[in-house]
Design a protein that fits this description.
This protein is of the alpha+beta class and 89 residues long. The chain is built from 4 helices and 5 strands. Strand 4 and strand 5 form a beta hairpin.
């Protein structure tokens, strides 16, 4: 299986860059260029999330499960605006 790493918000920035896998202790890792880190708005110690994609693996700075829950919450807030306004009183 071919694994393609596509970083959602900066695909054009990393499209022509080769990332090498390096040994880090007993693990392996990649070093992301500073341009990629800036566009993802992440730095050392921040979390990145990997999800399956049709063309391989997608890496994002946003937890996909949390984003889905927030979408549902926003839908509820739009639909039940009057009820939420009364509860806020």
């Amino acid at each position: 299986m071919r694994i393609a790493v596509c970083i959602d918000c900066c695909y054009n920035a990393c499209m022509n860059k080769t990332l090498k896998i390096t040994k880090i202790g007993n693990s392996a890792g990649i070093i992301l260029p500073k341009e990629v880190l800036a566009r993802l708005r992440v730095g050392p110690g921040d979390a990145l999330y990997l999800t399956e994609a049709p063309d391989g693996v997608r890496m994002t700075a946003v937890d996909p499960d949390f984003a889905a829950k927030m979408d549902v919450a926003e839908d509820i807030m739009r639909e039940d605006r009057d009820i939420l306004r009364e509860l806020a009183r």
